[in-house]
Design brief:
Layout lengths: L9 E5 L7 H10 L3 E2 L3 E2 L19 E8 L2 E6 L3 E5 L9 E5 L7 E6 L2 E6 L2 E5 L10 E4 L5 E8 L2 E6 L4 E4 L11 E4 L15 E8 L2 E6 L3 E5 L8 E5 L4 E4 L26 E3 L3 E8 L2 E6 L3 E5 L9 E5 L9 E7 L5 E6 L9 E5 L10 E4 L5 E6 L4 E6 L3 E6 L1
Length: 400
């Protein structure tokens, strides 16, 4: 799951979640690929304004969660919560509840009876997510904007704010009565890069014994005891990348025969930037995968095992900067589905690539366009469906 900032996306689907079973996963992928529906608009689109009125823009989805094939919950930038108990049943099965709060930027669901959405400095929670606006209640954290939330258990949710401050709640379903406890001031306290403090962009907790966050400096921040302030460790997983080549020093031209000559120039080092990890999904404690803003997939069978436990696979190695993966969701069993903004990509907006496994070579990818616009977020329910949402208030449902 990722943060809920605006994205423009290309959908990448990967069959396979466990590093140890790549060959078996590849065979399963070939036998039963994901079948995608046509996009269906589930929210009102653009309406031409009357004379003198400001136009209303189309709502854009910012996040989606599917704890089961019988419940998907999506949020948009207009503070709408859109739910369906039958996501494969078409647009008529999606119902909208407007929440009078700050713009919603993400949603996570521990189960059908606990979903948490966030936006601004507050959290909306519900134990009956499809029960309409009245079933959602807001709790304010009040320490900056909430950037990421994960709930490993019905009695434990974690939230990270823009200051990388960690809050926990042991009664997240209590709505406005939920108590959010300041657990750690900065989970990235060891970070001192010259470009400034990093920002946590996503959080996944497959168990109360494992939570894993990723940040804008390409680091994984993990804990096997997430409620303990001292139990979080930091690993530099994704190296910095070169965005502009450097220039060699020029010796110049000496002055002679009345010519003033030309002064030499010093060498210019290449422009290096952090590779921000933008999203992470952990279907189990023994597998996590994350994606960065330069099209690289990171994956590990031991997510809390430090930098050496993580491997990288380039989505588009001939030009690392062309595919920008920004979201990922893995079902409990394969597949994993990756979403990314295309930038200058040679791949069409809304296309999908099926991978044989997280360590696959690019030659094993296949591409198929499934949407005419950009996909913004994705969620996969165990053993059944994946749902992608786009910036035209539409959903695309994949079955496998």
């Amino acid at each position: 799951m990722r943060d809920g900032g605006p994205t423009r996306s290309v959908l990448l689907a990967m069959a396979g979640a466990a590093v140890a079973s790549l060959a078996a996963t590849a065979r399963a992928s070939a036998a039963s690929p994901i079948t995608w529906s046509a996009p269906e608009q589930v929210l009102p689109g653009f309406v031409a304004p009357a004379f003198g009125e400001q136009p209303e823009s189309t709502p854009e989805f910012r996040g989606v969660a599917c704890p089961a094939s019988t419940l998907c919950v999506a949020v948009d930038d207009k503070s709408d919560i859109v739910t369906s108990a039958n996501p494969t049943g078409g647009a008529a099965t999606w119902h909208t509840a407007h929440i009078p709060s700050a713009t919603l930027s993400g949603v996570t669901c521990r189960s059908r009876t606990l979903c948490v959405a966030w936006g601004g400095s507050g959290i909306e929670s519900s134990i009956d997510p499809a029960g309409g606006a009245g079933a959602w209640t807001r709790a304010s954290i009040g320490h900056g904007s909430v950037d990421a939330v994960a709930c490993p258990d019905a009695s434990l949710c974690l939230a990270i704010t823009g200051a990388n401050t960690l809050f926990t709640s042991t009664d997240p379903g209590a709505g406005e009565r939920a108590r959010w406890k300041l657990t750690m001031s900065h989970i990235d306290a060891s970070y001192s890069h010259e470009l400034g403090r990093s920002i946590v962009s996503a959080l996944a907790c497959p168990s109360v014994k494992l939570c894993v966050a990723v940040d804008s400096a390409g680091r994984v921040i993990a804990s096997s005891h997430p409620q303990r302030a001292s139990a979080w460790s930091v690993a530099d997983v994704d190296p910095r990348v070169e965005t502009e080549p450097g220039l060699e020093a020029s010796p110049g031209i000496p002055a002679e025969h009345g010519s003033p000559g030309l002064a030499g120039t010093p060498a210019i080092p290449p422009t290096m930037v952090d590779a921000p990890l933008t999203a992470i999904s952990c279907p189990s404690v023994s597998f996590c995968t994350a994606v960065d803003a330069f099209g690289t997939i990171a994956y590990s069978a031991d997510p809390g095992g430090g930098a050496g436990a993580w491997k990288l696979s380039n989505v588009h190695p001939e030009d690392l900067r062309r595919d920008t993966a920004t979201d990922v969701s893995c079902a409990a069993v394969s597949p994993c589905v990756y979403v990314g903004s295309d930038g200058l990509s040679a791949f069409s907006p809304g296309s999908v690539r099926v991978l044989a496994g997280p360590a696959s070579e690019p030659a094993s990818y296949s591409t198929r366009r499934i949407d005419a616009t950009y996909l913004d977020a994705v969620a996969c329910a165990p053993n059944s469906i994946c749902v992608a949402v786009d910036d035209d208030a539409s959903v695309v449902v994949g079955t496998y």
